[in-house]
Amino acid sequence: MPDAHPNARNIEIDTLRGICAISIIMIHTTFWSGGAYVPWVVQSLSLLLDVPAFFFIAGASVAYTQKIQPTKVIYKMLLYFGVTLLVYDIIQSLITHTLDFHTTFNALGLHGFSTPLLPILGGSYWFVPVFCAVSIIAAIIVQYLPKAIMGFIIGGLGLYVVGYFMGFAVGGKFLHTSFNYCIFYTSLYLLGYIFVQRRYFQSHKFAMSLIGIGLLGFVLVWLLKPHAQFFVLQSSKFPVSLPYVLASLFGIGLLLSTWNLWSRIWTNKGGGYARNFLSLPDKMRYVFI
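Structure (tokenized):
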């Protein structure tokens, strides 16, 4: 990820976003339309690359652009989701012949709501207040407490280890978001930030470390709590607990490793084999013309 103008697009980060977007579509398919027939094993595997990867990429994007603007991020998030729900309320009002914009107002106030005509929309809204809260917390840490970033990551993720084995939950809320979510997703946001800030993308060690932590953690949890249902990741996602934390670290590490491998194959630095192969028809066309 080379240095660039703050307003320039980074194709590598955009590629990671695209992969995660496809993964989210798969998750929604396995849990919503396929919830009645998709095995729990497939559902759990689909959660390896989930919302945590988006927070990691968000932190990486901030480090790349060298701009952290939580107000702008929250405004855009509420605007996009608010417009979507406004359209939903209008359609629902036309169908039911009752003028009601309760859903839109609740969403803009970062409250929960239900969308009976489109349940997946209401079921996915939990991400919005979490992202708004994390954007503010991360901005404060990066702007005013940069030396505390690693401490927050280690301490934050360590809380889920202690909480899992000692049986306590983190209480409190910020912007209608539980600190249980805030701590976890802020830790991953900051992890993505130092990934770019400290140029860890130039080495495979960072990705392999995340994979190793995830795998080793699962083995240790299985040995210490062999009867726990920690392979059913959906039960560890709401609220966040240690199995979901370990799976998320493993998934992010796997994403980075796969991307690094592909970038070596695709770019000229790595030989450009894939790019040369895909551009072969164009080269042949010029030969025969």
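The chain has one domain: 11-288. Strands lie at 173-174, 177-178.
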